[in-house]
Write a structure and sequence with these properties.
Length: 611
């Protein structure tokens, strides 16, 4: 059993602005979970998880013993998975609280200790039911099919069992599986070291000392001089920390190598593919399609952007810069809220109604403040609770899109909650669908309302969002692949990791972007490499998939909405192939991905026409 962690994490990094610039964004209240670290309900929920687990443990051996009696086995499966879900709900609730509370207090060692200790306790409780999934996987497919045919309650869990069976060829003995669970909290401290190192990072930028999100946000400043100053200050700060970051990545990669070898995985990304229920051929086809489109998308766009800015080439800190030195359009919180709700309403009123609940309740934490980590996510907690949305809202257009992204996740998580926690748990490849779709709805609205003068800037922003989500994430995927392949031959120094980074990013960005001195250290702040190896391709997967869905919506808006709602409400009960079949889409074909890349290329052509 695992503790809950965010199913979706945005790549956006943000920084504070002066409070007078816009309405104060909200902070969440976690009292729906617990009042504090000392809330007695935490111990009660841990005790409830142990009670459910102990009841399940008492059933050990009965599943295999009943393999020849389909009706009896079906009843046992229904009872066993129900107990497993009860324990999961309790453990994930306390785990979610620790994660959510700590994410706004990374400068408080007491919250870090609480999170670490709770992870250890929950791991020990959950480990007692390890036998259950192993015993189910001892059964043959025919035996499980007969049991689900004989008992309707067991059939309800068919999709969860299907996903469980994917790991069957890679399971270890019960003792080894228990060993990995017991040592998991210690291994997780490498990620904790990484997080705390970044949270404490400050970059000297002129007379200022900026945090990581502040420095990254400065890279979008209208002033070229301020962008350069921030980029160099951040490069120096990252350089000083690359020995630590390289040690973390090398250690976790080696840990993964050892486990992958014992589990008989053929390549480093295989476990992620299985968890996502996605074919390696589909991921490879997507990566090939995106790589082949580099010239028509990122290379071509950055050349055009350089021309607009009166340059032959752009420094890396100009990649996301405004097209001119004018102050970017600012959005207040209430204005952003209105844009998102109106955009969601254009799809179907139900989606806006679901999102409106989050604004009316203290379930969003959007106010930047010291100690709060960067990034954004929507945490589902469990299906018996409600999601929480986390972001740092600074009033920029990207923040409005990030808000739509995370609320898309929250709506998705809410719609599939009736399935229960285990069935609602959605693979990453489909989990990004609603979030990116939400962004697309908001962009369509912003573009439709834009003046001719603003249209070019909005179009540039849309293209850059697409490049950051598709091209950049596939480049990240390729960097990870090359890093893990190289790590198999031995530990990599920070300089060697930096060289891999420059090679891959240079290929993706093209000749119009100069990778100036210092950029070789920028791999060190991409947290996905540490927290979720090979997660990043899910962003490109989701973006290109949504481009296909958006086209289907344009063809038949009225007919699209109910099909889309069904897709979201299905949670993890359908594979990505099954989920897209009602739309007439087949993501196993390379041309499916190439079509999405062509959509980005068409936007680039439209931008060039405005240059």
């Amino acid at each position: 059993m695992r503790l809950a962690c965010p199913r979706a994490i945005s790549a956006s990094m943000n920084a504070p602005v002066k409070p007078s610039a816009l309405e104060t964004p909200p902070e969440w209240s976690l009292v729906d979970l617990y009042e504090s670290r000392t809330d007695p309900r935490i111990e009660l929920d841990l005790a409830e998880a142990k009670r459910a687990n102990d009841t399940l443990v008492a059933m050990k051996g009965r599943f295999v013993a009943a393999r020849s009696d389909a009706a009896a086995l079906g009843l046992l499966i229904d009872q066993g998975v129900s107990l497993y879900e009860q324990a999961t709900n309790s453990l994930w609730t306390v785990g979610a609280y620790a994660s959510l509370a700590s994410s706004t207090a990374r400068d408080d060692p007491e919250w870090s200790r609480f999170e670490g200790d709770l992870r250890t306790r929950a791991s020990q409780i959950g480990a007692e039911s390890l036998f259950f999934t192993l015993e189910l996987n001892e059964l043959e497919d025919a035996e499980l099919d007969a049991a689900m045919a004989a008992h309707l309650g067991a059939a309800r869990w068919r999709s969860w069992i299907r996903r469980l069976r994917l790991s069957r060829p890679h399971e270890l003995s019960a003792d080894l599986e228990r060993l990995l669970i017991d040592r998991g909290p210690a291994v997780a401290n490498w990620s904790r070291l990484y997080d705390e190192t970044l949270a404490k990072l400050t970059a000297k930028v002129g007379r200022e000392y900026l945090t990581l999100p502040e420095a990254l946000n400065r890279l979008s400043d209208p002033s070229a001089a301020r962008r350069k100053q921030a980029a160099n200050g951040l490069a120096e700060a990252l350089h000083d920390r690359t020995p630590t970051m390289a040690l973390v990545m090398n250690t976790l990669a080696f840990e993964k190598q050892v486990e992958d070898r014992w589990r008989r995985y053929d390549y480093p990304a295989q476990s992620r593919h299985l968890a996502n229920e996605v074919d390696a051929d589909a991921v490879n086809a997507m990566a090939e399609a995106v790589t082949e489109a580099y010239a028509a998308t990122s290379h071509r766009y950055y050349a055009a952007k350089a021309k607009v800015m009166g340059r032959k080439t752009l420094d890396y800190w100009d990649r996301n810069a405004p097209l001119d030195a004018a102050t970017p359009r600012q959005y207040g919180w209430d204005e952003a809220k209105g844009v998102v709700l109106e955009s969601f309403s254009a799809l179907a009123p139900k989606f806006a109604d679901q999102a409106r609940t989050f604004f009316a309740s203290p379930w969003i934490d959007a106010r930047p403040r010291p100690g709060k980590q960067s990034g954004a996510y929507s945490h589902p907690v469990t299906a018996t609770r409600h999601p929480y949305v986390f972001m740092n809202f600074m009033g920029e257009r990207r923040d409005v899109l990030t808000l739509a992204h995370e609320l898309g996740h929250a709506v998705h998580q809410t719609l599939c909650a009736p399935l229960g926690t285990l069935l609602a748990d959605t693979p990453l490849t489909l989990a990004e669908t609603a979030s990116i779709f939400g962004e697309g709805l908001v962009f369509e609205r912003l573009l439709a309302e834009a003046s001719p003068a603003d249209r070019r800037a909005l179009l540039a922003g849309k293209i850059e969002d697409g490049l950051n989500t598709v091209v950049r994430q596939i480049a990240f995927h390729q960097f990870e692949t090359r890093f893990h392949d190289a790590r198999a031959e031995g530990e990599l120094s920070p300089d060697e990791i930096g060289a891999l980074w420059l090679e891959v990013m240079g290929e993706s960005l093209g000749p119009a972007i100069k990778l100036n001195d210092g950029y070789e250290h920028y791999w060190a702040y991409v947290s996905h490499f540490v927290h979720a190896p090979f997660y990043v391709y899910a962003y490109a997967f989701g973006d290109l998939l949504v481009r296909a869905l958006m086209e289907k919506r344009r063809e038949d808006p009225a007919g699209f909405a109910p099909l889309y709602e069904d897709l979201l409400a299905a949670g993890g009960t359908k594979t990505y192939v099954e989920a897209l079949a009602p739309f007439g889409l087949d993501p196993r074909k390379k041309d499916f991905w190439a079509a999405g890349c062509r959509d980005i290329a068409r936007l680039v052509e439209e931008f060039e026409a405005l240059v």
